[in-house]
Design brief:
RNA endonuclease activity, alpha+beta, 126 residues, globular, 2 domains, single chain, five-stranded mixed β-sheet, RibonucZ/Hydroxyglut_hydro
């Protein structure tokens, strides 16, 4: 999670986005074994914020690096590298700059072995 995302997360957690979702799932849909308010708070306490382009060396083989996703304040893509293999993981991203956000940016020539992306609005030809 980037520093801007961590800074605004209490608005979502404290002001009910996650809480409302939890409540709907458990009280209205009847789901069980769902996370609790205490789970949400405990999880957020464990979040480690990172800067864009910062590489976190988890151990001798595993590293994680954040890149600007161009979607919302603090949105990031993450390159996860294990040995010589890499994954680029991203939620929403935007390749077109607009008035308040630039386009997503990764290092030139970055070629992950696997791309995992959110795809709500993805289209394909049949």
């Amino acid at each position: 999670m980037t520093y801007p995302t961590k800074a605004i997360a209490p608005v979502f957690v404290g002001k009910s986005l996650f809480e409302d979702y939890r409540k709907v799932q458990t009280e209205f849909r009847g789901d069980t074994n769902f996370f609790t308010s205490a789970n949400i708070k405990a999880c957020m306490k464990k979040v480690i914020a990172v800067n864009l382009h910062e590489t976190i060396q988890v151990d001798s083989e595993l590293s994680i690096r954040a890149f600007y996703a161009g979607h919302v304040l603090g949105a990031a893509m993450f390159e996860i590298r294990v040995g010589h293999q890499s994954i680029l993981y991203t939620g929403d991203y935007n390749m077109t700059p607009d008035r308040h956000l630039g386009a997503a940016r990764v290092l030139p020539g970055l070629r992950p072995d696997c791309l995992i992306s959110e795809s709500t609005y993805a289209t394909h030809n049949s």
